Amino acid sequence: MKNRTTNKFMKLLQISFCMLLLINLNSCTKEDDITPLGSEDTLNVESEAILPDGITLMSGCEYSITPEFDSVIFPARSYTWSAEPAALVDFTVNPLTYAITVQTISEGTVTLSLNSDDGEVSSSVEILIDDESDGIIKILAIGNSFSEDALEAYFWGLANAEGKQVVVGNMYIGSANLDTHASNATSNSSSYSYRKIALDGTRTVTSSVSISDAVADENWDYISFQQASYESGLFDTFINPLPTLYNNIKNQNPNPCTKYILHKTWAYAQNSTHSGFASYNNDQMTMFNGIIEAYSQAENLIPTDMVIPAATAIQNGRTSFLGDGFTRDGYHLNDLGQYTASCTWYEMVFGESVIGNTYEPEGILDYYKELAQHAAHEAVLSPNEITVLTDYETAGGNGIISESVFINFSSSDNPEGWNAYSSFLEGAGIANILYPNGGFTGIAATTTARFRGINNTSGAGSTTTDLNMSDAVSQSNFYSHALDWGSNPALEESVIEFTGFESNDTYTFCFFGSRNGVSDNRDTKYTLVGATEQSANLDAANNATNTICISNVQADADGKIVLKVSAGDSNDNSTLFYYINAMKITPQ
After folding, report:
1. Contact, 340 vs 314, CB < 8 A?
2. C-alpha to C-alpha distance for 160 and 22, rounded to whole angstroms
3. Strand, coil or helix: what is 405?
4. Shortest CA distance to 446 belongs to which of 507, 498, 394?
5. Which has the closest alpha carbon to 147: 300, 284, 332?
6. CA atoms of 524 and 536, how far apart (whole Å)
7. Phi, psi at residue 449, to the nearest 5°?
8. pLDDT score of 44
9. Cβ pair 536, 550 in contact under 8 A
10. What is the DSSP letter of 510?
11. How many Å apart are CA 224 and CA 226, to the nearest integer?
């Protein structure tokens, strides 16, 4: 028995040695080179090669088949694969295991045969190649709000504008990480909100759906995975759940040609208050570098067809004059950020430049579209490196507002002609306030003392004011409270600084505040500090008709005007909530 074990070991060493020296394995396994097989002192010889039953594949599909040989670790005989008719497929063969990777070319039926060179063992599998020819790209994301940001918002529109047909699915659980998805896939939990954008662009949301149900719903070309944002730069969090999730889905996916994607999500804004930011020392670049490293390793855990570099696209955008102006709350993307991420998906999936794409999303001006397209394009070219957008590092404007400009305090649905103030956090703002026609003023707005939050639906609709607001503007507000609100400490005032004024011109500032469905007084005080200090008050409670204006406002010697928003003296709410929904700046 000892001699038999030794001979087995020596044979394995011999085969391994041949492979390391790049010697043809076939020449190393001829019977006259190694002790004759079949006796008690040698390895068993395989008597059959087991292949799967018939397979149906689409044209243009890559698929791997690994034969199973009985009684051996490595096949002792040498083998040859052949295809008939040969023109329907290309293939490559692993010389050690004889696994074959097939690339289908055109429709038809092909027989793949595996034959030992000594004629003792043979096996075959028939492959039906079915050319769908429907031209529809179908993508299913197993994700959360970050896949919502990147895929649901603008990807369909980008594709449709260029005549491409897509179906998009998103299996959504807020903040879900890979552990959650892997557990749900294993248990077949029906715990997802299944968002689906159909071929015609209609969007449906179905609750209580399992991953297996969604996988079976369409013949998906791509299925994507992503780690939750707070763990996206921590490779250890990928190691166990990602292969588990992949294997579960692979085993239940009726389409053997599906390709698998990793969606590389973005680092938080530097002012983010997300608790997960602490894992990266509350530093954006530490988080970004962690994401790059984690996904570079994670793509080797499963057969990954592509990695979508949304993280790099957003970071590229941040090298522009907009800085961190791509999120609405420090981690979720605003409209421009969503458009940037969707552009990245477009270019990766379709393999063509997104620059010049003709899709015109509402509320995003051409200049910003161009910036976002370049941020995405450069990310695809250099997915693991930040590219400085030198053409967009500065913007125009002379620091003199020559016609009215409008500001909408909202994280979504910003209408044309309005500037979106999409984040309520310190450090957020508008890098360069725009005129309604898209021209730059050269004036920036920056929050120096945060608001508590944002509500996109609590203000009045159907307003009648001189601001001529749509409901998307009037119903959204930034709010704060001058007294403690539960565990939230008081914010006596929230402050925005307007900088970059280059003249002694005077302006009129008008404000609208509204909070519907309340029975108390929500008096809000607006104070402007420039060359002088002036204040005005407006009761925001159920307000649909009133604005308040302050005239003769002039910047100080540094070209700055400070806006302070606080609770007014007449405010009798128990927590002293105060609001700003919209404003207008007009030259006098």
Report:
1. yes
2. 50
3. strand
4. 498
5. 332
6. 8
7. -140, 120
8. 66
9. yes
10. E
11. 7
The angle, 0 to 180 degrees and rounded to 10, between the axes of the packed helices 310-317 and 335-350 is 130
Length of the chain (residues): 588
Q: What's the token pair of residue 360?
A: 């015109």
Q: Residue 352, Cβ neighbours under 10 Å: how many?
A: 11
The answer to whether 334 and 328 are in contact (CB under 8 A) is: yes
Tell me the average confidence (pLDDT) per consecutive run of 10 residues in the chain, 588 residues long. 37 42 39 38 73 86 89 84 95 93 91 95 92 82 98 97 98 98 98 98 98 96 98 98 97 93 98 97 98 98 97 98 95 96 98 97 92 98 98 94 97 90 95 95 98 96 96 97 98 98 97 98 98 98 98 98 98 98 98
SS3 567: strand
Return the amino acid letter for 15: I
H helix runs in 105-197, sequence order: 145-147, 155-161, 178-187
| Residue of 311, 348, 313 whose CA lies nearest to 159 | 348
User: pTM of the predicted model, to two decimals?
Assistant: 0.82
Q: Dihedral through CA 50, CA 53, CA 56, CA 62, nearest 10?
A: -10
C-beta separation of 381 from 363 below 8 A: no
- For residue 63, the model assigns a pLDDT of 87
As a dihedral over the C-alpha atoms of residue 52, residue 58, residue 61, residue 65, rounded to 10 degrees, the angle is 0
**Residue 15 DSSP class:** H
Give DSSP secondary structure letters for 50-118: E--S-EEEETT-EEEE--EETT-SS-SS-EEEEEESGGGEEEEE-TTT--EEEEE-SSEEEEEEEEETT
Smallest CA-to-CA distance from 426 within 454, 447, 451 is with 447
Residue with the two structure tokens 């925005």? 496
| Calpha distance 195→153 (Å, rounded) | 12
d(C-alpha 267, C-alpha 69), whole Å: 48
The CA-CA-CA angle for residues 197, 202, 204, to 5°, reads 65
Q: Using omega within 30 degrees of 0 as the cis cutoff, is the peptide bond preceding 256 cis?
A: no
Residue 25: its pLDDT value, please? 39
Exposure string for 401-419, b = 16+ CB within 10 A, e = fewer: beebbbbbbbbbbbbebbb
Range 555-560, long-range pairs (CB < 8 A, 24+ positions)? 555/498, 555/501, 555/504, 555/530, 555/531, 556/529, 556/530, 556/531, 557/531, 558/499, 559/399, 559/499, 559/500, 559/501, 559/502, 560/497, 560/498, 560/499, 560/501, 560/530
| Residue bearing tokens 């898209």 | 438
Which pLDDT score is estimated for 106?
Answer: 86
Whether the Cβ atoms of residue 349 and residue 371 lie closer than 8 Å to each other: no
**388: nearest Cα among 292, 315, 284:** 315
Long-range pairs, 389-395, Cβ under 8 A, ≥24: 389/316, 389/317, 389/319, 389/320, 392/319, 392/320, 392/321, 392/322, 393/319, 393/320, 393/321, 394/321, 395/321, 395/431, 395/432, 395/440, 395/442
Beta bridge partner(s), residue 338? none
Say how far apart CA 48 and CA 33 lie, in whole Å: 22
CA–CA–CA angle 438, 443, 444 (5° rounding)? 100
